[in-house]
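Lecture 7 notes: from sequence to structure.

We start with a single chain of 668 residues. Read the sequence below before looking at the structure.
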Amino acid sequence: MKSMSNVDIYTVSDELNNLLSGARVDKSFQPTNDIVVMRFHVPGTGRVDLVMQCGSRIHTTQYPLENPTTPPSFPMLLRKRIKGAHVESITQHNFDRVIKIRVKKDKYYTIIVELFDKGNIILLDDENNIIQPLKRKQLSERDISSKREYVFPKERGINPIEVTKEELSELFKNADSDAVRTLAMNGLGSLYAEEIIQRANNTVEIDKNTPTPQLSDKQIAEIHNSMQELFDNLKDGSIKPQIVKKDSKEDVVPLDLIKYDDFEKTFYNDFNEACDEFYSKKVNSTIKNVKEAAWNKKVKKFEKRLNLQQETLDNFEKTIKESKHKGEVIYSNYPTIENIINVVNNAWSNDYSFKEIGKILKKAKKDGMAEAQIYESIDKMGVLTLNISDTSFNINPKLTIPENAEIYYEKAKKAKRKTKGALIAIENTKKQLEDIKSKKDIAMENVSVPKKRIKKNLKWYEKHRWFISSDNTLVVGGRDANSNELIVKKYLDPNDIYLHADIHGASSVSIKLNGEELNENIIKESGEFAASFSSAWSMGFTTQDVYWVHPDQVTKTPESGEFLKKGSFVIRGHRNYIRSARVRLGIGIVDYEGKRIMAGPVDALEAHCDNFVVLKPGFTKKEAIAKKILHKINEDDLITLDDIIRVLPSGKCDIDEEYHLRKKYEKN
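Now the structure, written as tokens:
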């Protein structure tokens, strides 16, 4: 996979700096060994994911990668140290393949993203010391280990945006290579080195293979002019992000290049978006191959087991057939076998050793004695190996012929008993093999068809907490201090009702009556809504008191000498209490100005949709519970995992199985 060039990194870092400066750092993830994803919250934009792959790429992404169940140590360190920090700047270091992400929390931190060689991602403290690298490396000039001072790679190459004609002349004068290689090896790469020479050729003839000391002043001047002409577009921000294709060749570039004139081009709004489309599908393809190999290993394990079990069954059936046949051969040749047994026993009784007896029988067979023709060998314990009609079998002369035959019949019976167990084991393995193949197919389908996360145009109320009551009244609540402030200042009308859980840390809730009469049903449902979206949920309460007042009782003016934090309000006059409101929520897809996900009181969900999930405070993390909910309610593939996570209350949850069992019983 193509690694980003210095030019690509310059463009990406410039866009990232404009987009993420002032953004708040959220969680970090590590989907694979060399990929780290940092999530940011950008004011007015919302969630932005930044993917960083060691030695390869950095850009925003709309293609979420699957994260491991247990986060590795590096993203956990980022969460601990810089979650909640604000981005100060994102810059490229010396037009090199290194990016610096500077953030401020309690102090300054810097994330270094190295995109040369195999790359690295490193967290630095405010004194430029390494807190922890993603990969520890001991190099001749650099020690990338914790508690060591971070040293940037040795500066090499030129900055084509700022280089002067004199500096370029000096570079060519001291180089010992041809023109195109000299440019390529000094930070431009082969693509832009060839592009610059090709552009310069429009004015003066230049063979790209010309040794640099042989370049004339005019040629050097034209190379410099071509460089300025090309890269002034970067400086001015006049870029044309595009993915180019021709036959099997594909590339992503921020500028229109002569080299790609005859290529099919797809243009994008910004270079980050173009990189996302170019790299993400290729990375998903790589991840698919890795995952497919892992699944194939599991499949082969069961296939190998099945082959061994089938081989064992075949051996049992072979043993049954051969043992029965040997028993029958022994009985059908009773007199002949009895004669040779008698010979052996008589010789043994006359103090002949079994070795001597064997020699006698071997000689007799050689001499043509008829009784000895069935003899093959005798072991040190006296057990004979005989062969009749190409069937070889053992005879113990100390046993009778029926006893010798019974040994083979018993061996056949034992093998037959074992075939039953083998058949059961084979059937179990076949089922397990089919199950693992089915799981592989589902997993590979999910990996091979990455779903792009498309930002939805939310209705104004969807940006807050909201639900539609069972009698179709809109109720909205704040998500945080800023949102609480908006609910009261912008969305609390004179005829509305204001609610708040009687606990520190709760949503400001507004019942949008729109001229309708207030009734007990709306009060009850809104009370449960306010109770559930409060700190009562994270504390594990099952009920919580809630009060309601009229809008003119809500004020931002504190008592003399007091101070109100953002999102806080003073309530004047009498409060109407809703005692022991249930801390419980239903989540489902409702048809309100179009299909959309809603989290609200159970009665409201029962009134507006048939398929929903009821939640209570519990012990399951948001991501895990959201996957269960998605599986249960996303019948028409209308929503994503993120949609569900966005409407969940703060704190862990469990599905209220008791409610669902009771409803199932009532239905039946």
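The CA atoms of residues 90 and 101 lie 5 Å apart. Keep this in mind for problem set 3.
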